[in-house]
UniProtKB/TrEMBL annotation:
UniProt-listed GO biological process terms: phosphorelay signal transduction system; regulation of DNA-templated transcription
Any one GO molecular-function label of the UniProt entry: DNA binding
Keyword S-adenosyl-L-methionine: no
List of residues that carry 4-aspartylphosphate: D60
Domain Response regulatory intervals: 9-125
Protein name: Two component transcriptional regulator, LuxR family
Database matches in Pfam families: GerE, Response_reg
Organism: Granulicella tundricola (strain ATCC BAA-1859 / DSM 23138 / MP5ACTX9)
Length: 207
């Protein structure tokens, strides 16, 4: 990188402390990349993006407070100049499709080589889309799933332990409407209850 060039700024969101530190160090040694914030949850990530307006947000999918997918949606709406790169353990086409629908432009697995990770940040920052090659090929034939977006949201929250009353209050819906969404999701997945339905949907990458 020449002295006149600005480094690629990155906000890193990862809830596992050791991995977050490792990624921060790994990206930080690249001469053309600068990690401006390293945070442990989705809410902090959204604040950091608003503060620093980085070129790239690198985030996991499973994040406390705000998930990586919800984060991608919010960042696309509020800070469209920041491009989102998902770094995750979920090697499932369902998650990839949902990440792309949410506005992410990159999707890599956590076991990728460090050089591949740094290069992905560069490519994403310069407007390219970067997707794990094996997962990209598999996603063409993947089932997008039977659930609507609202059914996914309700089932995901229910699977995380929210009660019907809490869901109704959070989503500003009636408890009857929440029960209808859950009933539909359970029926579509052939499950016996909301817990089993959430487990089945998560295994498929639909949540």
């Amino acid at each position: 990188m020449s002295p006149s060039e600005k480094p690629i700024t990155v906000v890193l969101a990862e809830d596992q402390g050791i991995l977050r530190s490792s990624l921060t160090i790994m990206l930080g040694i690249e001469p053309d990349i600068k990690v401006v914030a390293s945070v442990s949850n989705g809410a902090e990530a959204l604040r950091a993006v608003g503060l620093h307006l980085p070129a790239v947000l690198v985030t996991d999918i499973e994040m406390p407070q705000v998930t990586g997918l919800d984060l991608a949606i919010r960042v696309k709406e509020l800070y469209p100049s920041t491009r989102v790169l998902i770094l995750t353990t979920f090697a499932r086409p369902g998650y990839l499709r949902r990440a792309l629908d949410a506005g992410a432009v990159g999707y890599l697995l956590k076991d990728c080589p460090s050089t591949e990770m740094a290069e992905a940040v560069r490519r994403v920052a310069h407007g390219e889309r970067v997707i794990d090659p094996g997962l990209a090929a598999e996603s063409w034939s993947a089932d997008a799933g039977p659930l609507t977006e609202r059914e996914r949201e309700v089932l995901r929250r229910a699977g995380e332990g929210e009660s019907t009353a809490e869901l109704a209050r959070t989503l500003r819906l009636t408890e009857g409407t929440i029960r209808n969404y859950l009933s539909e999701a359970i029926s579509k997945l052939g499950a016996h209850n909301r817990t089993e339905a959430a487990r089945l949907a998560r295994a498929k990458g639909w949540l």
